[in-house]
Amino acid sequence: MRRDALEPGLVDNPALHADPLADATIARILGPGQPGGPDMATIGLLNREIARWQLNGDLDGWRASPGLPPDMAAALEAYVVKARVLPDWADAAKIARAEVLFMEMSMASCTLLFCASLPQCYIMPDLAAVLHAAGELEQHTDYRVRATAAMIFPVMMHGGLTAPSGGGVAQAIKVRLIHAMIRHLVLRGDVAEALVAPRRLPRLLTQAKTMPQVLYAHGWDIDRLGLPCNQEELGYTLLTFNYVFLQGLRRLGLRLDQGDEEAYMHAWNVLGAVLGIEREQMTDTMADAERMFTAIQAQARVLQRKDDPRPALAGALMANIQRYLPLRILKPFPVLLTRHLIGKASSRDLGLDKRVSLLSRGLFVLVFGFIRGVDAVARLVFPGFSISRLVTRILGYNLTVKLLMDETRPLKLPDTLLGEVGDAVHAWHNDDKAPRWVNALERRFTGRTRPAAHQG
């Protein structure tokens, strides 16, 4: 990346680090930036080719399709050989434990995805700016959320990172290459060249209609923002899916023990390595994660934009969740739950601190306080008892089935993986840690009955 050409003191700045392997691959395929806009034909051909990466086993000895341009074929084949390898510090036992934890959390995991992890993703102003420019969340909220779920499920299901039949690695190296494509398009050329001569790229007047064209037209101030999708941002995003998730469980009264928390963080760190994130941008404990997360958010607030896109993004996400809630009095609950999970400062950044009807707010406080009180007393007799778990499972079930598992809009996953995701969701009809009457109550509120395949 010719970092020796950078000014002293900037070499160790993670905002100026990207992903040499993926960036070099994309630069080799797309070439230098063109004044007339991105090469849509080449981008389309590239997207069709990487769509072949479906299961981890597909990457074994992978070869490009016949007829693909030789430079693209050679670049992709070299990329797959290097990108598919797990780091040497990966611990299979910890990854397996994290998979079990994800399945045990089941529907609560989905609630935390929508009301904690995704909202915290939009705190970073420059990340939000790219999403805003592409209309990626305001106009296509479902797509963005479903695309995130399409990576999380393959990674966290059994064997997602370790088995040939899993799909976590295959999905991750596609996302990694897409990040590199975003950098290339936003910077309109080679990332390494942009690093040597940082500059502000002006916005182009364009009638862009496709996402690559929009990204190409979007201006970027490298001096102020660093590289798009840089290591600091990637490390922060990783924290939203391990640290923020685990912190959310704690705030719901569902805290895991230290060994389980660290196993969960480890699995996501392994995924981070496959995504091209440097080890220095990862943390192994909740305490270290909190320090890094807080520091990155504090720095992000210094870079606050006048035309802040974050409230619009968060508002679109909340509105999308609210339309799946049946009663008007319950509509503000996703905002109120998100406030509780992400805290006052982040809620303010996202514009989620606006007035909520007194009736809805009072009901939320009453219900939440009642749940925590009952849980505290009941656990003196039944250690595994949790109404909080029940409520988050009910909300998570409705969001998962209606938003992610709609048969008219299936997740973009290989048929084998899509079937496994469906089986996993149906298998979540019972909470193994809850008494039978709690499971019966949950089925009553979700309208579910036991699927025939799981009766016994």
From TrEMBL:
Highest rank taxon of the organism: Bacteria
Keywords: Oxidoreductase
Enzyme class label: oxidoreductase
Stated name of the protein: Oxygenase MpaB family protein
Organism, as annotated: Massilia orientalis
E.C. code: 1.-.-.-
